Amino acid sequence: MNPKLAKDTKVLIVDDQVLAKGYMKYSLEELGFNDITYVDKAQHALTKIRHEQFHLIICSYNLKKDQDGYYLYDQLKHNGELQPSCAFIFISADTTSDLVHSIVELQPDDFLAKPFTVNDLDKRLTKVLTRKQALKRVYGFMGRGQLTKALAEVELFLTKPKNSEFFPLALKTKGELLLACGHYEQAKEFYLAIINVQPFTWAQLGLVNAFIHLNEDEEAEKLVLRLAFKKDSQLAAYDLLSALQIKQKDFDAALECVVVATEISPRNIRRHKTALDLSRITHDYETQFEAAKKIVRFAKDSIHDKPENYLNVARAGIDFAMTSDESETYKLLKQANEYVKQFKSAFPKAELHDQIKVIDARLLYLQDEKENAKALLDQIENDNWDADNMDALLDKAKAFHELGFYEKSSAVLDLIEKRCKKDEQQGSLFLHYVQQEREERSTIKQTPKELNNSAVDYYKKGELDEALHVFRQAFVVMPKNVSIALNLLQAIAMNSNADKSESANAKLVDSCIRVIENGALNDEQLERYHKVREMIQETV
Known about the structure:
Elements: H1 3-7, E1 10-14, H2 18-30, E2 35-39, H3 42-51, E3 56-60, H4 69-78, E4 87-92, H5 97-106, E5 110-113, H6 118-134, H7 136-143, H8 147-157, H9 167-180, H10 184-197, H11 201-213, H12 217-227, H13 234-247, H14 251-264, H15 269-281, H16 285-299, H17 307-322, H18 326-346, H19 353-366, H20 370-378, H21 390-402, H22 406-422, H23 428-443, H24 448-460, H25 464-477, H26 482-494, H27 503-518, H28 523-539
Parallel strand pairs: 1-2, 1-3, 3-4, 4-5
Helix pairs in contact: 7-8, 8-9, 9-10, 9-11, 10-11, 11-12, 11-13, 12-13, 13-14, 14-15, 15-16, 15-23, 16-17, 17-18, 17-19, 19-20, 19-21, 21-22, 22-23, 24-25, 25-26, 26-27, 26-28
């Protein structure tokens, strides 16, 4: 270790184990570090970082006293509170695949597995700190948000042969700055030139990003699909692929990619939120429910741990129950109630009484207590909508619609859409979902259960045109429901007025068959399905 480099480095250690603290302090002092601060909680680390400038942070991944190291680093990066010139190193005795994927995704400057020797620490710190020192001016401009100056500085850095040891990192930084400055065509040419010399993973991922921004979607898809099969680029590739599919409005495919990515690295809360938004758009109520539960689970003891997380699980459970068979409904309602209890226990001082009333009203509706549900909604303050968050407003709109207050429901959806357009942080997916809800609820007044029951009644009476129309509506709001898909397919097969070979009907038949064959059928449904398929094949 260079003595001057060690002496000039201000260090923060974040660890809640006394023995680890002692060993780390001894090791650093052996290497010549003397400006060392020690804290045992993530919250204390945040306070220190916000008031002092550190050059090196060594953080335990597994902090037990409050939020852990993962969420500390995630928060620092997300809020822009960690200067690019500051080195961040994780230490952990745990090296499971989940943890490694999570750390690789966060991209700290290094990860050191316990136990390690003073010599191991010396090698790692020398490498990281020397790198930071070499690109100090570039990082300084980046930290101040002066990206154009940072780009000019890194280009100057690359002209000096004495810096050749750090050219790989400088080149990677240049590509990131080109993208951040919006120079997409230049970034594309830069990454192509790099790949022609050596196919670095970071350059290929950067090229995909440039392709997407330049609307060269076909090239982006070809490259990103190859990267999705490589371990070192898998997560980043899935994120880029889902971004591409969202851009193309292929929300089902995007959801599949996001779900796969959440399984590889389950601690990324923002990805679970994307899964939640996409599952709403695609009417995948089961995935929506699971995503909401995972947000609660992984957000615990982090900056993401909020009362709304628990209420969103209850809301997602109700949405799922609205579309489920009666045998499943009771179980889902029980789980929804359980998360409301967890919310009250975790946040006893949170005053969200109106939000709880809306959830309770929807629960009562599902238990066929419509009048009690209406009475509960009547207690809600109608002049306090501006104080509600988006999820609370959305739940109100659903409750009003389910209980027949269509004008109120429409007014709330109007308010949500206006707020979405003003609030850029809300994201395009949520806005798309709200606009979709408005369109669907303006034409489909009945709830999912009412739609199915109504369509079955029409079918039994022999009113096949009406049955087909209502089953179509039911399939719009329940496109993953096997029973609805089978009923709709049977209605198409039995309706002599429906041209099975006509483009729209043929597409609908294909959609029904896909849902049915990917789902689970009981014996009665399986027998009925085979008969319906024969009828369809005979008429086409």
